[in-house]
Amino acid sequence: MNMMLTMLINVSLASLLIMIAFWLPQLNIYTEKASPYECGFDPLGSARLPFSMKFFLVAITFLLFDLEIALLLPLPWASQSINLKTTLTMALALISLLAASLAYEWTEEGLEWNE
């Protein structure tokens, strides 16, 4: 009995909310709000806008450095291994590689945004 009453209340409340949502008129329909484009984009123009190649190169550089740093995440667990000297040597080699690649990007002006 109690479960039937709960189901009846839930179904009637859901039906009431659905009917209210369909019966209420849409008062504020603006064409700009109904447009799929936001922030002043022209919906009649081309959807393929060019982007700077410099942005692409910085994004690729960020991804590479991010992946290399992700290799350092298991280092605290690896430091508990039996051969600590090998673990620390490999970590130092990876950090040195990161520093060398950052220095190379810096000297080649890969991180500069000015054109």
TrEMBL record:
One GO molecular-function entry: NADH dehydrogenase (ubiquinone) activity
Membrane-crossing segments per the record: 55-75, 87-104
Database matches in InterPro entries: NADH_UbQ/plastoQ_OxRdtase_su3, NDAH_ubi_oxred_su3_sf
Catalytic class of the enzyme: translocase
Catalytic activity line of the entry: a ubiquinone + NADH + 5 H(+)(in) = a ubiquinol + NAD(+) + 4 H(+)(out)
Keyword hit for Cytoplasm: no
Record keyword NAD present: yes
Membrane topology: Multi-pass membrane protein
Location(s), subcellular: Mitochondrion inner membrane; Mitochondrion membrane
Record's keyword terms, sorted: Electron transport, Membrane, Mitochondrion, Mitochondrion inner membrane, NAD, Respiratory chain, Translocase, Transmembrane, Transmembrane helix, Transport, Ubiquinone
Pfam families the record matches: Oxidored_q4
EC number of the protein: 7.1.1.2
A cellular component term, taken from the record's GO annotations: NADH dehydrogenase complex
Quaternary state and interactors: Core subunit of respiratory chain NADH dehydrogenase (Complex I) which is composed of 45 different subunits. Interacts with TMEM186. Interacts with TMEM242.
Biological function: Core subunit of the mitochondrial membrane respiratory chain NADH dehydrogenase (Complex I) which catalyzes electron transfer from NADH through the respiratory chain, using ubiquinone as an electron acceptor. Essential for the catalytic activity of complex I.
Family under the similarity heading: Belongs to the complex I subunit 3 family.
Protein name (database record): NADH-ubiquinone oxidoreductase chain 3
Organism: Mustela nivalis
